[in-house]
Design brief:
With 445 residues, the chain is of the alpha+beta class. The chain is built from twelve helices and 16 strands. β4 and β5 form a beta hairpin. The two termini are 35 Å apart. The protein binds adenosine-5'-triphosphate (ATP) and magnesium ion. Magnesium ion (MG) binds next to β15.
């Protein structure tokens, strides 16, 4: 026992059908491939559930029905092994797709050497996230995460389709940069030949510059932030959906953002009905326009609710949780933030000596999804704001010099993809919305 099953190369074997294409009416012999999700051994009958990228299919080996040597071989198949099966389909009401495969040949490509420390079926996992992350690729075989990442795929496609319709051009800006985008400590230094450089914390300055050439640009790419705190909503490497639009202000890009969110929700409903059903998930209700609250009004409300918060403080999820307001459960904007809380490139308003700026955060409940604003497009203003925030304009010479050549009025936002996924899928920990999370404790796998 235990060594009948041998590993084979793929050779000339090719899959003829995905699990989703299997139906009881297929008459010919077929070949399916995937990995073993589960094995149930009832002595004289053995059920193997084979999983591939589209779903599951049942293989049924019965003593007396398939020949003895094949039956003995089937009994050695282990969960998580990668295998191929040649066989015939027949109806089976209780199996996925109403069909089962009677094997004629089993080929093991890679036999699992160990039992995985967790199950891949079912919606919830019984083990902690660190155990799962240590073996992430195996964890990602779980049906739950399969659905999460199929939905992520739709979100990204839907963003690209939406922005393409709005005449945005997709760009990729450098991730190795010479100076901080916003100043501050959150940067990862790297060696760049004989110099120090940094990983980009946002594409901000590049996407702004590109409005002078292309008007409307967007980027979907990584942002790197040395976040010293351990939270369920921060990663050291996240994916940001960034847009920048010429001849527009923050009101215009808020309108783009809310319509983009609606388009995403509708597209996921349409294309991921099976995943939503499996997750037993109802997507957030979205209705245009999203509510807008001014920062100042919100501070008043928070103070009324007994929070010790001052005008000028940042609004944290902990603080927001003290507001018992149904309208703050879904998507909404907080607009007109104190100029002092926002980066130097954000345009101060014209009233009150520019005490508040033309800025917004898109929230989902207590969680920040996106920050955006009208940007400063005049060089003298930009230099003044840099100096006020303690940044050295000289260090930004490479950026400031293009402002001598007619940078258009523009506005934009950065939307965190993983944060958006948290809102859509209702996951508590941002780590489950990314394949290989990076945080202060984790740099592998
Ligand atoms: P927070 O206050 O939540 O730390 P932030 O205001 O520092 O976020 P921004 O610089 O405004 O973040 O970045 C734009 C968006 O990028 C955020 O609204 C968020 O969705 C996402 N984002 C920023 N930092 C992270 C991070 N460390 N991990 C995951 N997403 C992030
Ligand atoms: Mg922000």
């Amino acid at each position: 026992m235990g060594d009948l099953l041998e590993e084979h190369d793929l050779g000339q074997w090719r899959r003829t059908h995905y699990s989703s294409e299997i139906s009881p009416s297929i008459g010919d012999e077929i070949v399916v491939m995937g990995w073993v999700a589960s094995v149930r051994d009832h002595g004289n009958i053995l059920f193997i559930i084979l999983k591939d990228m589209h779903g599951e299919i049942q293989i049924t080996a019965k003593k007396g029905e398939c020949d003895d040597s094949l039956f003995e071989l089937a009994k050695e198949v282990k969960e998580h092994s990668s295998i191929g099966i040649r066989g015939k389909v027949r109806p089976q009401e209780k199996a996925p797709n109403g069909a089962e495969i009677v094997p004629a040949e089993i080929r093991a490509f890679s036999i699992a050497k160990k039992a995985a420390p967790f199950m891949t079926q079912g919606k919830t996992s019984t083990v902690g996230i660190d155990t799962r992350l240590d073996l992430r690729a195996v964890d990602l075989r779980r049906n739950y995460l399969g659905s999460v990442f199929r939905i992520r795929q739709t979100v990204l496609n839907s963003v690209r389709e939406f922005l393409d319709r709005q005449e945005f051009i997709e760009v990729n800006t450098p991730k190795m940069i010479a100076t901080a985008t916003e100043g501050g400590a959150a940067l990862f230094p790297i060696f760049y030949y004989d110099r120090e450089a940094f990983l980009a914390q946002s594409p901000q300055l590049y996407k702004e510059q590109l409005t002078m050439a292309f008007e409307n640009v967007f980027e979907i790419g990584p942002i790197f932030r040395a976040e010293p705190s351990r939270t369920n909503r921060h990663l050291s490497e996240a994916i940001s959906i960034d847009i920048e639009r010429a001849f527009a202000d923050y009101g215009d890009v808020m309108s783009i953002l809310e319509r983009m969110i609606v388009s995403i929700v509708e597209t996921v409903k349409e294309r991921n009905a099976d995943d939503l059903k499996f997750l037993e998930l109802e997507l957030p209700a979205v209705e245009l326009p999203f509510p807008k609250y001014s920062y100042s009004d919100l501070i008043d409300k928070l103070q009324e609710a007994g929070e010790h918060i001052q005008w000028g403080d940042d609004v944290t999820p902990q603080v927001m949780k003290s507001l018992q307001d149904d309208r703050l459960g879904g998507f909404y904007f907080i607009i007109d933030w104190p100029t002092s809380t926002k980066p130097f490139y954000v345009k101060p308003g014209s009233a009150d000596g520019g005490r508040v700026c033309e800025s917004f955060d898109l929230m989902f409940g207590p969680l920040e999804m996106s920050s955006g604003s009208t940007r400063i497009n005049r060089k003298d203003q930009l230099v003044e704001r840099m100096s006020k925030q303690g940044l050295k304009p000289d260090a930004f010479d490479y950026h400031l010099r293009v402002f001598d050549y007619g940078v258009p009025p523009h506005a934009g936002f950065g939307l965190g993809l993983e944060r958006l996924m948290m809102a859509l899928i209702k996951v508590e920990n941002i780590r489950d919305t990314t394949l290989y999370p990076r945080d202060i404790d984790r740099l592998a796998p």
